[in-house]
C-alpha cells in the first residue's frame, strides 16, 4: 500500500504537471471507484482546474478552482500514471482517467481505493481523525515521545495506526524500527524516553530518504521517470526475508503481528 513517501512523491510530480490546466475529458471505467453518479462526476470535472495538490497521511487532496475537492486513497495496489494522449496506454486496467489537454492522468488499481468528489467540509470530515504528520513543522521529538508515551501495545501496531501518526504503513514501520535498532514487536510501555527519541530520529531519517528516493512504487509516474520507485532497492528489511542484514549479515526474518507482515533482524533488533 502506498505510504507517506509514495504519496508525497506523487504530490510533487502532479504539482509540476496539472496545476491550472483545465480538465478536458473524464472517463470512469469503474463506477464504484467514485462516490457520485458518473454523469455528475464527469460534469463537475470538465472545465475544472486543479489549483493545489495536498497530501494528508496516505491521502491526496486535489483542490479545484471552484472550491470542490477530489479525495484520493490508493489503498492496496493503487498507482498513478501520467502520459501523453499519443503514448500507449498503461498495460494495467484503469478505473478512472482524467485528461488535461494533451495528457491523461490514469488512476490504476482503484478496486480497493477510490477517487471521491467532495466539498471542502466533507473532505475535512473524512480527514479529521487522522493523527499528526511526522514531517510537519509542528512536530518535535518531545511531542512525538509524548504521543507514544501515552500509548500501550506493540511498536509496529502503533506506528501504522493512522489515528496516532498519519502516513506510516507496513513498510516504513519496519524500516524505522530497524534503523532505530528496536524490535517492531516491542511493547511501547517497555521503551525508554531515550529509545522513543531515537525512534523519532530514525523516522525522520527514513521518511526523508524515502521521499527523496521516490518511494517503493513499482510503476514510473510517466515515461522517462527514473525516480518513482527507486527506494525499493534501498529497503533494509521490508520484503527482505532470508537476505543478509546490511549491518551484521544475519538473515532477515519474516513473521506476523496482529495479521500484519513483520520483517526484522533477530540479531540487531531485540524485543523490549
TrEMBL record:
The gene is mutM. Keywords: DNA damage, DNA repair, DNA-binding, Glycosidase, Hydrolase, Lyase, Metal-binding, Multifunctional enzyme, Zinc, Zinc-finger. It catalyses: Hydrolysis of DNA containing ring-opened 7-methylguanine residues, releasing 2,6-diamino-4-hydroxy-5-(N-methyl)formamidopyrimidine; 2'-deoxyribonucleotide-(2'-deoxyribose 5'-phosphate)-2'-deoxyribonucleotide-DNA = a 3'-end 2'-deoxyribonucleotide-(2,3-dehydro-2,3-deoxyribose 5'-phosphate)-DNA + a 5'-end 5'-phospho-2'-deoxyribonucleoside-DNA + H(+). Residues 2-113 form the Formamidopyrimidine-DNA glycosylase catalytic domain. This is Formamidopyrimidine-DNA glycosylase. It comes from the Bacteria. Signal peptide: none annotated. Residues 236-270 form the FPG-type domain. It comes from Paenibacillus campinasensis. Its EC number is 3.2.2.23, 4.2.99.18. The keyword Zinc applies. One of its GO terms (molecular function) is oxidized purine nucleobase lesion DNA N-glycosylase activity. PANTHER family: FORMAMIDOPYRIMIDINE-DNA GLYCOSYLASE (PTHR22993:SF9). Monomer. Its cofactor is Zn(2+). Belongs to the FPG family.
